[in-house]
Each structure stands twice: as C-alpha cells, then as structure tokens.
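Work Package 4 report. The design task specified in the project plan requires that, given a folded chain encoded as structure tokens, an amino acid be chosen for each position. We show below one input record used in the internal validation round.
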C-alpha cells in the first residue's frame, strides 16, 4: 500500500475485537514511527504502553482517576459500568509523552514533531491492519494523568493512542478540499 492510500484510508477506530495485539507489533511500529522529522534530532518523545495485564491495571487506575476527578458524579452506576466496559475493550493504550525543554519555539517544535510521529504510528498501524484512535483533551492533559503514567516533571502528554484489531472501520468523513484553504502568495 502506498503512502497516499494509507493516508486516505486511515480512520479513527473506536471498536476493537478481543484478539490480542502482540507487544512486538507495537514495538515494530514505534521503531519506524520515530523517524518523524524533529528539529536537531531532539527526539522529544517517550512512550508508556498498557497492554495485556498492564492494560487491566491501566483501566482500573484510569477509572479511579476519573472517579476522583468527578467524571461520574452525575452518572448512574449503569453509565459508569458501561464506560468501564467500553475502555476495557480497548486492547492497547499507548501514552505518548514529549519532553518540555528549551525556548518556547523549541517546545512548539518538539510538540509538532511528536504530533508528526503520532501520525506515523497511526499510518503504520493501519498498514499492519490495526485500528487506532488518537485521544486527547481534558482527561489526558492533567497532572493526575501524568502521574498515573509516570511522566517526569519535564514531560507532557501529547496524546493517548488506542490500538487494536478493528471490529468495525468507520466510513470516510468528507473533508473540506485543500484548495478551499489554500492561499497563493
């Protein structure tokens, strides 16, 4: 499969089979993904992999964190259980951290390099038949979550990549043509 086809066919997969993903497959993906462009080869990323028994511990600790943050305060026990079942069905959680160092410009470059590397992860996973979904936002960008995954003081979370064998691949969502966002100088 060529790069164009991979880019056009990649989807955010949120439903996975219960077939295990070999950790060696994730390591193989990471070994290629790190060839993302990064300024002065600072390689600002680090990974925390929750797979197999680690995934079970991760889900338990994530649920505790979300409960402590009040995520379920307005939810019924059934809704809480439904959420736990949903995240328990994700075979692999890969937290991607990036090192915060240097000037503001260097920090921006490092975050952007990490984002490019995450896209590589998703494309490589897709090439191997895995589904993935890049998660970010309010739960992942907290000090509590950083502590949960063992982030160092100078590290921030760039995102959490969910990976697994897809149970369903969502249809393509229409994009605004690039020419509508293109300005010639």
């Amino acid at each position: 499969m060529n790069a164009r086809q991979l880019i056009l066919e990649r989807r955010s997969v949120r439903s996975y089979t219960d077939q295990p993903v070999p950790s060696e497959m994730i390591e193989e993906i990471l070994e290629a993904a790190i060839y993302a462009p990064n300024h002065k080869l600072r390689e600002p990323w680090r990974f925390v992999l929750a797979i197999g028994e680690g995934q079970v511990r991760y889900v338990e600790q994530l649920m505790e964190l979300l409960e402590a943050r009040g995520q379920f305060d307005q939810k019924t026990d059934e809704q809480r259980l439904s959420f736990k079942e949903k995240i328990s069905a994700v075979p692999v959680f890969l937290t991607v951290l990036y090192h915060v160092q240097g000037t503001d410009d260097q920090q921006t470059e490092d975050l952007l390099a990490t984002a490019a590397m995450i896209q590589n992860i998703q494309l490589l996973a897709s090439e191997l038949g895995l589904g993935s979904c890049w998660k970010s936002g309010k739960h992942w960008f907290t000090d509590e979550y950083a502590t949960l995954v063992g982030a160092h003081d100078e590290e921030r979370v760039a995102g959490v990549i969910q990976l697994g064998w897809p149970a369903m691949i969502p249809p393509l969502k229409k994009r605004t043509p690039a020419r509508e966002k293109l300005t010639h100088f």
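Strands lie at 45-51, 92-99, 131-135, 155-164. Validation will be extended to a larger panel in the next phase.
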